[in-house]
Amino acid sequence: MKITYYGHSSFAVFAGGKNILFDPFISGNELAKIVNIDEIAADYIFVSHGHFDHILDVVNIANRTGALVVGSWELYDYFSKQGLKNVHPLNPGGKVSFDFGSVKSFIAQHSSSFPDGSYAGAASGFAFQTTEGNFYYSGDTALTLDMSLVPKWAAMDFAVFPIGDVLTMGVEDAIEAAKMVQVKKVLGVHYDTFGFIKLDPAEAIQTFQKAGMTLSLPAIAETIEIDL
């Protein structure tokens, strides 16, 4: 399965013939200057929560591409009021079928507010079943036992976890999360963007290896393929 990393927690998965983009925060990320957001393809945009570093470029990219934006009820309402017409609500516990497969939303243990400080609904993550394989993006979250519910819905081939610590899980908790989700392959996100979430990538990869797992840390704008 092909994955392109756009920095911070923004990445895209190509599955079921569709470009599925997550949490686009690119134009405001100093580390992602190499990325031209006007060239990003998107058929769907999944948004995990309302913090600025996850929603900044949603409206821009959705208006250009016509992508369907998916998120909690509060995100659905917010983006609808921003003028987007192609928006779909999906709260934790809910499941929706799309043309590439099906998606179930799971709770994330994290705060969530819009840039003006107003309530942005429950933070969430998403588990995907597609013809190419299955994967779970936890969104910004602490380690939570709710992750053990994911493989009860479907067996996952890999997971995408935040590993920068301080605001989310760190490396050690991400390993525990992988055990609960029952995956051996992890894509790490949400690190290095800000001074308090700096990561030692070599040490992180080695720590995962010691746990019998593989951690992928692609460069910004790099496309990798995870063998399933």
Describe the structure.
The chain is globular. With 228 residues, the chain is of the alpha/beta class. The strands form two sheets. Strands 6-5-4-3-2-1-14 form a seven-stranded mixed β-sheet, with helices on one face. The protein has six helices and 14 strands. Pfam families: Lactamase_B_2. This is L-ascorbate metabolism protein UlaG, beta-lactamase superfamily. InterPro entries: Metallo-B-lactamas, RibonucZ/Hydroxyglut_hydro, UPF0173_UPF0282_UlaG_hydrolase. Residues 7-190 form the Metallo-beta-lactamase domain.
Give a count of the beta strands, DSSP E runs of length 2 or more: 14
Residue-averaged pLDDT, rounded?
97
CATH topology: Metallo-beta-lactamase, Chain A
The level-1 CATH class: Alpha Beta
Note the beta-strand portion.
25-35%
List the keywords.
globular, 228 residues, alpha/beta, UPF0173_UPF0282_UlaG_hydrolase, Metallo-B-lactamas, single chain, Metallo-beta-lactamase, Chain A, L-ascorbate metabolism protein UlaG, beta-lactamase superfamily, RibonucZ/Hydroxyglut_hydro, 7-stranded mixed sheet, 14 strands
Short summary:
Pfam families: Lactamase_B_2 (PF12706). The protein has 228 residues and is an alpha/beta fold.
